Amino acid sequence: MKLMVFVMNKVEHLDPFVHRLKEAGIKGATIINSTGMGRRLMENDDLGNEFIGSLRAIFDQPRAESRVILMALEDEQVDIVSKIIDQVVGDLNKPNSGIAFSLPIDFIKGFKK
Q: For a 10 Å CB count at each end of the chain, is N or C smaller?
């Protein structure tokens, strides 16, 4: 089993993404609202104006929010979800598009196959 983590930066893709998961037989995911480090630093005046200025040069428009989607998957489902991400969200190698990765699960309780 794998834990797949997908940080979705363009939240307008969330509904189409979860519908495609359902169509593919992926039965569960946990969706968490999140804010990135760059956004937090830009909102906090106490963290230093020089650093914030350099962040603004890197990030054109920081996202107000993102979604972290956690999925416990059978090994063969990781590739299916990866393809759905590509189809719905697009190429994650593009800047500010998101990130996805998987980790091995060595213990799970409450997961129904």
A: C
Inter-residue contact 69 to 28 (CB < 8 Å): no
Long-range contacts of 19-25 (CB under 8 A, 24+ apart): 20/84, 20/87, 20/88, 21/71, 21/81, 21/84, 24/77, 24/80, 24/81, 24/84
CATH code at 77?
3.30.70.120
φ and ψ at residue 111, rounded to 5 degrees: -90, 125
Q: Which stretch of 28-32, 40-44, 58-62 has the lowest confidence by average pLDDT? A: 58-62
pLDDT digits (tens, 9 = 90+) for 20-40: 999 999 988 999 998 777 666
Q: Are 92 and 83 in contact (CB under 8 A)?
A: no
Residue 26: what residue type?
A: I
What are φ and ψ of residue 28, in 5° steps? -155, 145
